[in-house]
Specification:
By secondary structure, this protein is of the alpha+beta class. It has two domains: about 140 residues, Fructose-1,6-Bisphosphatase, subunit A, domain 1 (Fructose-1,6-Bisphosphatase, Chain A, domain 1), CATH 3.30.540.10; about 110 residues, D-Maltodextrin-Binding Protein, domain 2, CATH 3.40.190. Helix content is about 35%, strand content about 30%. The chain contains eight helices and 15 strands. An eight-stranded mixed β-sheet has the order 4-3-5-6-7-8-9-10, sandwiched between helices. The chain is globular, with a radius of gyration of 17 Å.
Length: about 260
Amino acid sequence: MSGILNIAIQSAYNAGTIIQQESRNLERIKVATKGHNDFVSEVDHKAEQEIIRTISKAFPEHNILGEETGLIDNGSEFTWIIDPLDGTTNYIHSHPQYAVSIGVKEGDKVIAGVVFDPNRNDIYTAEAGKGAKLNDNRIRVSKTTTLAESLLATGFPTYDMSFLDQYMAIFKEMITSTAGQRRAGSAALDLAYVASGAVDGYWEFNLKPWDIAAGYLLVKEAGGLICDFDGEQNMFNSGNIIAANPKMISQILKIIQNHR
């Protein structure tokens, strides 16, 4: 295991400890609104600062892109991409579906990723070329081959409603074509579930790099495929993402493209 992955794991555990400790006093937590249905709590900030502190101590020369802090540009080829609390809306409502997500890029290539679920104490890890794991056990994407047998995850539009009609048309066809759709509220965990085979695929509009970075590598290293809604690799810029096992991705993409 590389030093980078070790620090990512340590950072995620440290942030998770803060998140769970603060969850005992949710009524005291200050919450602000960044935009329509876009919330940030003081816990997001505390967790992110702890992650930054841990990374900076080990790799002071590296860049850091945090959801709340923005970009700390040290001119490095390495960039840490952090979502300290993916699923803030769930968290402030005591809904136990949220995670810490930390990805690391070397240039344009994601080389390490960690998603930590502090409620279940599950940690998903991946290194480029070395596979993906859940709690040190190797994971692989599912072997489901047809939409009719598949369980898919998605994320409802919450911030930008401009594509709501398009989303609902796709969602309707997905419901009628699959065994089920799930919307849990954490993109990082949805991608981790694709990697571990808990769901067969996942699709969502308008995500940010910190939502995607760690889960992207988990899926790839678990044998899955990822693309944007054009079937290309522009998901970090467009925010539109499909992740699935190799048999499912083209079937999901076809439905989405039918409504674009």
